[in-house]
Amino acid sequence: MSLAEQSCYTLINVPMDSEPLTEMQLRQDLEKGDVKTKIDALKKTIQMILNGEKMPSLLMTIIRFVMPMQDHMIKKLLLVFWEVVPKTLPDGKLLQEMILVCDAYRKDLQHPNEFIRGSTLRFLCKIKEPELLEPLMPAIRQCLEHRHSYVRRNAVLAIYTIFRNHDFLIPDAPELIANFLEGEQDMSCKRNAFMMLIHADQDRALNYLSGCIDQVTSFGDILQLVIVELIYKVCHANPSERARFIRCIYNLLNSSSPAVRYEAAGTLVTLSSAPTAIKAAASCYIELIVKESDNNVKLIVLDRLIALKEVPAHEKILQDLVMDILRVLAAPDLEVRKKTLQLALELITSRSIEEMVLILKKEVVKTNNVEHEDTGKYRQILVRTLHQCSVKFPDVAPVIIPVLMEFLGDQNELAAADVLVFMREAVQRFEQLRPLVLSKLLEVFPTIKAVKIHRAAFWILGEYCTSGEDIQQVMTLVRQSLGEIPIVDDEMKKAAGEVQDEEIQSGGAVQRLVTADGTYATQSALSTSSVRKKDEMPPLRQYLMEGDFFVGAALSTSLTKLALRYIHLHKDAKKQNSFIAESMLIMATMIHLGKSGLPTKPITDDDVDRIANCIRVLADRSDFMNDIFNKDCRGSLSLMLAAKIEEEKAVQEAAEKKVVRVHADDPVSFTQLINRTDLGTGENMFELTLSQALGMTNKKDSDPIGSTKLNKVTQLTGFSDPVYAEAYVNVNQYDIVLDVLIVNQTSDTLQNLTLELATLGDLKLVEKPQAMTMAPHDFCNIKANVKVASTENGIIFGNIVYDVSGAASDRNCVVLNDIHIDIMDYIVPATCTDTEFRQMWAEFEWENKVAVNTNITDLAEYLQHLMKCTNMKCLTPEKALSGDCGFMAANMYARSIFGEDVLSNISIEKPAHLGKDSPVQGHIRIRAKSQGMALSMGDKINLSQKKSLRPGA
Amino acid sequence: MVLLAAAVCNKAGKAIISRQFVEMTRSRIEGLLAAFPKLMNSGKQHTFVETESVRYVYQPMEKLYMLLITTKASNILEDLETLRLFARVIPEYCRNMEETDIIDQSFQLIFAFDEIVALGYRENVNLAQIRTFTEMDSHEEKVFQAVRQTQEKEAKDQMRRRAKEIQQKQREMAKGGRGSSMNSFGSSSYSRNDTSSVIDSSIIEPTSKPSYTAPSKPSGPSKALKLSTKKKDVDSFVGMLESEGERVVSVNKTVNNAVTKASTPAIDQEGVHITVEEKISVTAGRDGGLQNLEVHGIVQLKINDDKFGRIKLAVQNNDGRNVQIQTHPNVDKRLFTSSSIVGLKNPDKPFPLNQDIGVLKWRFQSQEESAMPLSINCWPSENGDKCDVNIEYELEQDEIELEDVLISIPCPTGVGAPVVGDCDGDYSYDSRKATLQWSLPVIDSSNKSGSLEFTIAGHPDDFFPVKSPLFLKSLILKDVVTVDGQEPVKYSKEVLLYVDKYEIV
């Protein structure tokens, strides 16, 4: 068995900077040294063996000179040594020296020191060879009766593993342990014995449990845990037993140990789906989340709750517990809160909505007092939740809106922006709410602090203010936030008047300064007053002065809308004209300011165009433009909202589709008729996860051997070489197994034939293949393991070296062809949200830009091809890609099994002037955290887009 | 819960050492550990990562991470507790908590890790226990080694004596004028004997316990003989040890140990072997009252010869006291209650061969003082800041004989050794455990009572609970006749009684 396949219990990563000791030196130390040198030498030996060295000559030295030592450290180190050292010959036979070792261990099992006995027993758990264990059996049995519990509990474990691996060595183990369990007092021993019975002989375990089922609550937590495990297992294998244990599990649900409560709750759910049981389990979970301070616990238990919710029958019960679930919000961690809110939102019903909104409102108020880095984000989540609440239950919207409006004045842009998105939807969809929203918005408008919020607020006001009063009020607000107009004149005045201000200031009239309109100048002698002056600049004017004219453009459109509406409302021509004039003045002054050079950045051409357009519309006042401004705008909003709702619905439907329904033609299964193996429909969770974790659930090779295996065979040498070699490359999750077939094509015996391999990239050879001798025309297989640590293009290269028997020449050498490791085996498509993508895009340091060079002429086809050959997933929705406009941009994302992210963005076009058959042009940008990943991905794309040429050619 | 592995990683997440608790291949564990640094998230307030197959739970510690890899169904609460324990173990061995430190102490850490988790399940241990377990400081071993030393010494002495005798004889023989060739032969054979005695002392002293060549496989001629010689040895070497300044803590332990061990293979077993085993645990009040006395007994039957597979045991229970007797589920209960005969329910089925089968169990519980085998009376009286303590014992039942009784009295720490005035038997003071050990080789009707007097600074309350892990040897009255087809069968019998707990609180 090769080192990589052997079970491994210890890993020590020692930096190999120093010169490694030779076997000679080690032997000297082990033989002659004092206790300390021996310890050091033994440690070195173990480390070297762990690193794949083989030191067969040291074995005897250790047996002769180290084994007889009585020093405790040496004894313990020896246990590790025997754990790691190969105990068999290559042909699987036990080494003869091991008999001596075995005898030494028999003595240790009878050692007066209880700890040596105990640790020796524990070591025996890891021994696989029955020949070694057999002579030790009587001694192991005796240890069961040792006075010290440390020995007993390890003896039980040893017996357990021996029975599991070779039951013929101790056929009466279950009985032995059952008897032992009866008389045992120590908790640890009892636990181990009970555990052994669970796995070896469930009936006995059950007998024991039924004997003491009433005292279960008084047991220690570790014993309770295995009892829960037993109950789970028994009930899983034999559902008819369920009834017996529900009571016991329920008792354990009130155990003093939270771990037991958690486990019991999980088991209770599998035992019974009665509402009371589910409710008890769910309350237990909630209690755990609230009481445990650790975030890990909270999150994982929340996951269990969410899993509980997935079952439709259980959802009803959880719905009653929504209020309890919301208690979790007291936890400070953002992730926990996010998950909780998500869960609560999914469980909300019309009965509980009002209460929930109340609680959420309280939470919102709470966030006002606490300033913490996460508060902003939390507030945002709260807003989103409230938003979704009101979408689900429109009745509560009037209650929610006032609360949410408070956020508009918030420093935090995120929460405020979310509020406005919500407002926009509410105003559009619920007509009855419009007056409320508008009045509220007008009220809080002066407190708004961020430019984006202003822009969005202007839009809502411009779109939905219909009454004359409202329109007038908006106008006043606009004037207020712009300050005196025309702005340029005002600013000039201010600049000129600065001197005066200065004088006044030195005169000591501070109050005048406060009332002053504020200037942009900072040459003031007193820095405090100048800062204050700056602050007092009306918000809109400040944005404009800073060069942000986009808000100006938005304001202009809103004003235009309002003005057009105003004309409809008021037939008085004078009023009409004055309003329009005012609007136009505002717009004009903005353009003026933009061109004046006063702001830090001049106005952009786009904004000028937009504002000028608005002025023109107001001047012309054509019906056509009126329609565009007042109807089509709103129409497009409602279109967008409708599309959004549709999308949500689709997602929901997709989720619902996953729910397994029983089809009419499904076979009915009768419990009585099912045979045992079929019964475990849901596999035993514990074993399933264990085998998953150990990587034993290998992907099933669904394809017949021919198609897949042969595809992966690489020829390593030529057919006319004296030694022919080919390798089958088997890629597992973290390692690559090379199965090399070597054929001796000569009629000489080849001696010392060694396969020497080396790697390039993030690959590591786990162990060197051994040398061998090959008869004429003989063939053999050699396996080599290569460890992979990250997704990078790896190359394995090497040669075969051998001696020809009888020939006096030097060693012969055959150089092997390189084996390229395909990274696509490690890359799996993954999804992430848009924001996550952007964030990663900004964070990742390595970018690889690949020019498109292909013969594919269709944009969509190219994208499909790329997705197929890179295993990446397209994040851009299908709709955005549909249609034919000659260019295309899409984001793709994938993740390696090592957890590395790789992002790519493709921008491709089909130049119109080149005709129909011209290939796709453009480039692909790949971003990744590590250089290797970005490079290999780029290589892959380069290679595969060229490849696509071949079938066509 | 199943804990797959525990690892210590450096700041970058690279594993420095890792110990696996379940069987897994090297490539798998290396892969899992290699994936960790990429999965590890900083800036979040939780410290676990779940992948498709496993869960990582970790805890940052200065420049290191303590990492556990568990299955996904594992109990997170349990895992976190284990993780905390792991994290506390590391500073025990590594002061600086740096990578180099971890590498230096890697084996120590691995040993400590082994104590925390067994086969993926958490053991119920605390930091202090881990320390004791890894230190492996066993009193029994020390005692054992001391015994060996004395034996060696004795053997040498005896050898020297013998050598002298032989020399003398030779001289006499030389005087007698025997042949010189004979002479030389004799001397050479003795010198050989000289060297071999170190290896196998039993040649020279056949009555002593077989020595270190086979340290724990007693093969002495008979149990009783072995015990008594051993005890003698113990007495002598304890005295010697103490004179050498060695601490000798609990003599009885080794003796007890030897007996229990010896009890299983035991004396020559006949075709049918019956073992009667009793365990006693006593808790008594300090003013003499008995709080609880519990005796558990078991009759074990071992059939060594398949001829006698189908037998019945006639049992006679003379004890009128309230003893609850239970039979093994396979034993015919009715037959037992009606005629006190132990036989299988299915008379055609034989008892299993070569196995110890418990056929009868009984439990006796009492609060009557007379049921107690040995009563211990402790009289502390305050005398200024000192305290005079009088302890006396009394054998309550004349017919039993107690061997190797050891009474340990806890003393207040930090006030020095107690001054012992009057003492029946031997005493020793263990300053490490702060206990005064009073040992009595044999208590029977000839020395029914005895006392110990000592003075020490302290308070009367300091002297409780007095513990007395003693070894009792007595005979429980049972008349056993074996019958198979009404034919008597030869059988061997063994009666054991040992003490679980004997405590005066």
Give an overview of the whole structure:
- Chain B: This is Coatomer subunit delta.
- Chain B: It comes from Lottia gigantea (Giant owl limpet).
- Chain B: Residues 269-505 form the MHD domain.
- The complex is a heterodimer of chains A (953) and B (505).
- With 953 residues, chain A is an alpha+beta fold.
- The longest helix of chain A has 36 residues, at 623-658.
- In chain A, 58% of the residues lie in helices and 11% in strands.
- Chain A is built from 43 helices and 17 strands.
- Chain A is globular.
- With 505 residues, chain B is α+β, with helices and mostly antiparallel strands.
- Chain B folds into 3 domains: 3-135, Beta-Lactamase; 272-369 and 476-504, Mu homology domain, subdomain B (Immunoglobulin-like); 374-467, Immunoglobulin-like (Sandwich), CATH 2.60.40.1170.
- Chain B has helices at residues 26-39, 76-93, 99-104, 106-116, 127-135, 139-176, 180-199, 223-243, 251-263, 333-339, and strands spanning 3-10, 15-20, 48-50, 54-61, 64-71, 117-118, 121-122, 272-284, 290-303, 312-317, 323-327, 341-342, 357-366, 374-383, 386-395, 401-410, 419-423, 426-430, 435-443, 449-457, 466-467, 471-473, 478-484, 487-488, 491-504.
- A 6-stranded mixed beta sheet of chain B has the order 11-13-9-8-25-21, with no helix packed on it. A 5-stranded antiparallel beta sheet of chain B has the order 2-1-5-4-3, sandwiched between helices.
- In chain B, strand 3 and strand 4 form a beta hairpin.
- In chain B, helix 4 (106-116) packs across helix 5.
- The longest helix of chain B is centred in the N-terminal third of the chain and has 38 residues, at 139-176.
- The radius of gyration of chain B is 30 Å and the shape is extended.
- Classes of the chains: A alpha+beta (953), B alpha+beta (505).
- At the A-B interface, strand 1, helix 4, helix 6, helix 9 and helix 10 of A face strand 2, helix 1, strand 5, helix 2 and helix 4 of B.
- Strand 1 of chain A pairs antiparallel with strand 2 (15-20) of chain B.
